[in-house]
Structures
1.
Amino acid sequence: MSLQSQNYQAIFERSPDGILLVDAEGVIREANSMAQQLFGYQRDELEGMSVDRLVPPHVRPDHGSHRDRYSRAAAVRPMGIGMELRAVRNGGIEFPVEISLAPIDGPDGNTWTVATVRDVSLQKRLRDFGAGALRASEEERARIARDLHDDTAQRLATVLVRLRLLENEIEADEAMARIDEIRTALQDTVEGIRRIARGLRPPELEDAGLESALRSHTRMLREGRGVDVLLDVHAVDEYLTQDGRLILYRIVQEALNNVVRHAGVPQARVTIRHEDGRITGIVEDQGTGFFPQHLALEGRGLGLLGMQERAVMLGGSVAVESLPGQGTRVRLDIPVEIEREVGSV
Ligand SMILES: Nc1ncnc2c1ncn2[C@@H]1O[C@H](COP(=O)(O)OP(=O)(O)OP(=O)(O)O)[C@@H](O)[C@H]1O
Ligand SMILES: [Mg+2]
């Protein structure tokens, strides 16, 4: 069984990479829909345009001669090996790309070029962001949590005791009422600090496991932020190291933060499963949604990047599925079959 030619057309159109068909003069003759999205032009604008307009201005003068050289010794090859290639979007914004070139016989008898363009903004930002930064921030959180709990909360507790003693020595009703107010304020403060410390380093994670830690976090979201999270979590602790559990917890926490801050709906759902040697997780909402593809171009969003980077630390990945008006689904996939040393955080 072989594909019909309309299937080839569909493959071209639906390719997740931008594809440009460029003639011997450097004119774009066909562009698929991802190319239109990546470069921010309509099809009829791209088709007929010189491909030189899609490269940064400083390489434009040489681009023509590169093209000539390529068409003389045309072969399938990646472009600019070892170089950080950049392309230019409509409006002048540059973004990092990987490009592969393949020669093809053009209908005019000349050799044309198929250029496949992949946007690697996300990969580049992940590299720049680096696992080191995450590890450092995790250590810092642990230190702050410890200080808040052991030092600040303890000191405040001592102040509470001294207030109690003072109360026994004072008679006047008015003074008593003031002391009472101060005590209530202090108690709230201690409570607040404990909550912050828990958020920084959830104690349940070590004692009772991932599900309990998530339960306690979602209780806080319900009470504090009015967002109800339906938790459907398999027992996966045994497949993860302590660090692995913390990483998974952080990814879900970050995804839920986004629901609270951006989705505009009071419900979300978290599903975590262990199946066929993988842990899969889904954090989803039916809220406002967005175009994930646009984020990389606009350079926004450390939260999603952090999630991705954390998943990579476990040898896995995070994918975001979202569309305006259609909610958001963050999918997490972590292989756990092989006993592995997990990068410590
Ligand atoms: N569940 C969601 N619903 C709607 N929009 C979302 C959702 N999750 C993410 N977004 C969109 O994606 C953007 C990027 O999210 P990301 O978590 O990376 O950054 P952020 O939340 O804006 O900032 P932070 O770095 O503090 O997390 C958000 O600004 C928001 O526009
Ligand atoms: Mg966020």
Note: DSSP finds eleven helices and eleven strands in the chain.
2.
Amino acid sequence: MPGEEPIIALENVYKIFGPNPRGRAFDLCSSGVEKDEVQRQTGHVVGMRDISFSVNRGEIFVVMGLSGSGKSTAIRTVNKLHEATHGRVIVEGIDVQQLGGSALQAFRREKLSMVFQHFALFPHRNVIDNTAYGLKVQGIEKDERHEAAIEALAMVGLEAYAFNSTRELSGGMQQRVGLARALCTNPDILLMDEAFSALDPLIRRQMQDELMAIQSKLHKTILFITHDLNEALRLGNRVCILRDGKVIQIGTPEEILTEPADGYVAEFVQDVDQGRVIDVGKIMHPAVLLDTSLTLAECLDTLGKRRGGFVCDTDGRPTGMLTKTDAATALASGTTELASVLRTDFDSTTAAARFNDNYAAAGRGIPIAVVDDAGCLVGELEPQEIMEEMGRVEQLVDGFEREVFL
Ligand SMILES: Nc1ncnc2c1ncn2[C@@H]1O[C@H](COP(=O)(O)OP(=O)(O)OP(=O)(O)O)[C@@H](O)[C@H]1O
Ligand SMILES: [Mg+2]
């Protein structure tokens, strides 16, 4: 799990585009005048206003917003492709705005890699040379950089194509090369600006899966930009929503869904709300049953990778739930007895209930009991799976539409 150590921090960052960004446009903007009005009065465009957020080590932090909301501007201040008009950008303790010349070049080469929406591959170089490009710039010998490139290509499943021309690859494959190129220099930080937005939905989903698989191995710190809330909720440990250059909300996917900060976010969330087409029965799985005779340590073993398990009465009705977190906390403080740690405040649903009826309960972060008409336990839902399912729902809906039109 990502820690709480901030690797990237934006502190009250403003970016104003125009000939005199620190003049009247900034004064108006910082005193709260809206973007359109600033533009009307001064001809300057507000890219970002008073943006603060931090990205922790090992986290996928997603910045989401509509076109023009300032996402690219924000990511570009992190490697100083844009100079901030005001505020500070700190990356691993370095004040990025102070960097220039060779220090800035070295910082960009060594600390971070960027993946763009449109591949940005060199058409006249083959796959391996595209992948190894960052190492070549660093002056690494050919054998060594090819070895690293093959390793990076293997991570994205393309080692067999190392010596092909990039022109022979599909869009999805080209984007994989883009990702391999970013990984090849082994940077701590990946900056990904709409990296999957140009891909068709199926390939896009595969790329999301691959990124998550790679992340669970490499634990990079990833700042990911998207205009798609489904993608944001699927990938993000936390999501930051921008509008007109301003931060509207920062939160976990659960928080965004269950406590949208305002109507704007709520509207986005509504779009995601295609969960009405899915029954709980399709995504639930068998619950872990715990016996009251077990010790807490034995229960923890029984839970394995699951977040929680249930104790039922003789009729099979759930009477208590043990979460893994509760068990671990209790064990650490010397408790060994199951009964004292059982919760009774868990949520219940039925197999026929709709998936989106459970968003709020999922927001509590603990498993949900699925019961039949008689109240007997028939399965459970884990909050994380509800979030993951959201991405799949998007595919399903796409699938339905295709079937109808073909
Ligand atoms: N170089 C520039 N010069 C002038 N205005 C700019 C420049 N770059 C961005 N802007 C303006 O700043 C605002 C934010 O743009 P930005 O590119 O960050 O949006 P975005 O959220 O990345 O949008 P998209 O989803 O279309 O990529 C927009 O109003 C845009 O017109
Ligand atoms: Mg953009």
Note: The domain at 280-390 is CATH 3.10.580.10 (CBS-domain).
3.
Amino acid sequence: MNKPILTSDKITLTLKESISEERQGEYITLHFDVPEAIEEINVRLIVKNEKGNTIDLGLEGPSGMKGWSGGARRSIFVREDRATPGYLIEEIDPGKWGVVLNAYKVKGVCNVEVKVDMQPEAPRWIKGDLHMHSNHSDSPYSLSEVIVNAKEAGLEYIALTDHNTFSQNEAFEPQEDLVIIPAVELTTNRGHSNFYGVKKPFNDFRCQSMADVKHVIAEGEANGALISVNHPHCDHCWWEWGLEEFEFDYVEVWNGPWRERNLRTLHWWQSQLGLGKRMIALGGSDKHGPDEWIKYGGPTTFIKASKHSPEGILGAIKEGRACIASSPEGPLIDLEINGHRMGETLLVSEESSYLDLHVTIESFNGGRMKVYSSDGLSFERTLNQGNHRLTFQVKPSNSFYRIELWGEDKQLQDFTPQAISNPIFLKTTGADSNG
Ligand SMILES: [Zn+2]
Ligand SMILES: [Zn+2]
């Protein structure tokens, strides 16, 4: 099976065993060491001379058997969030592991080779869509259709944000190559908000008052959900509860195709960052049914996560390592100042005069790059199509830097954002620091 999750930095081992006829009926363990921070283990059994030989396959970890597939499979994998049926879904502990073989039938000498691939945890961009619906609310698509559509769009994760219901989070089938994040869109009569990462973050959606909304949000937070205010400046369902009444950590800056409502939210987010708030921008298509304009992954939220799992992706969102792009093809923005990345806070001394802002851009069709800070639009440049590595000297006195890429949207026939980064935050330290 071709699994995109295994990257070039995987560790590959080959274990060989020559099994003679006298050992028929014996369980044979081929041991291997698993280092710290391994995301996935893949095992493939190759029996060199199949004729008259039957070798069964299983796997054990440091604390016991992980699973058994007998003669039914030649290839299996385990991860903390998913595994081949027959194998336990558990954290991958470092230590001594073993491929367990059963020499069920052996004629003469049977030579076997076992390939073990281990994927170390390592930060890389994972693309997905944080907002979509299924027939568990008001979309015509079943969960399996949503999953097929998301994979066809090239997405690597999705969040199932059906309106006011949790049944989708119980019903979906875990996928080998698509991470599904349990979610719900709290849909009140006066505004919407996504809750991510928990199958049932609150008991009852029926908010009739501000106090009800605050109660549901507090309940979701206590249950560990990440909560974003959705399309808060939408013409039809804006956040009528009053944005100033809440301390949202996440905001859906980009909902579906780029529209005026998104621009209003972008401006509002900029103003909130200017007030010193640490608010992370997210995006999602809000795809319901067939629609010429609204597409899976339009926009795509790229997350720099160390693990392709709900925990890995949500953890990276919490850190703010997210960049929103118009499609799964990008473009992609990464930022760095003094080793600090998007979402991080860099402490700067009052004495430092300038900082180097390093910008990496991939797959841009060309257009304008706009650098925003707590000063507003700090500067802009025209960039050609392609990849770019740029360094700019910036003032340390601003409380954040972030980037927007604008270009021509062929479908909308308009000049629109193609990507929006999250900020690197700056905090001045020094004798006279006022925090
Ligand atoms: Zn909504
Ligand atoms: Zn929605």
Note: The mean pLDDT is 95.
